[in-house]
Write a structure and sequence with these properties.
The chain is mainly alpha-helical and 163 residues long. It has helices at residues 3-9, 14-19, 24-59, 64-122, 127-152. The protein contains five helices and no strands. α3 packs antiparallel against α4 (64-122). The longest helix is centred in the middle third of the chain and has 59 residues, at 64-122. Belongs to the SNF7 family.
Amino acid sequence: MSKISKFFKGGASAASKRRGGPSPQEALARLRETEEMLSKKQEYLETRIERELAVARQHGTKNKRAALQALKRKKRYEKQLSQIDGTLSTIEFQREALENSHTNTEVLKNMGYAAQAMKKVHENMDLNKIDDLMQDITEQQDVAQEISDAISNRAGFGDEFDE
């Protein structure tokens, strides 16, 4: 079975059918396969166009009918090549969109894990206890500052005498 027929007839794995659709990795792999196949077809058509152009030049004025037929085939190949270019652009756009969606999903999932971790970390913390602790710390810092100020002031030896 060709790659195209597998693609359209659903050559998907049994696992992906059970899950309700292909995984992003499977879809990306298939899109890349299709891109490769179309790129090869592009190369083939480009060589055919060159060959038909050479045939048209070869027959030139000697056999106008053969030259005209070669130019018609060349034109047909160019039309196919143009269609493949459009298809490749569409596939590339879809692949990029799928990659971005997959990235966004992973980021969202990781943000959810981080939120759960933060919730677990904050689980044992009580806002009232934290407020009380901060007040105690502030009070102790004030006491320490008063002690420091009392120690650093000069002793009043001789300054307090009245003449």
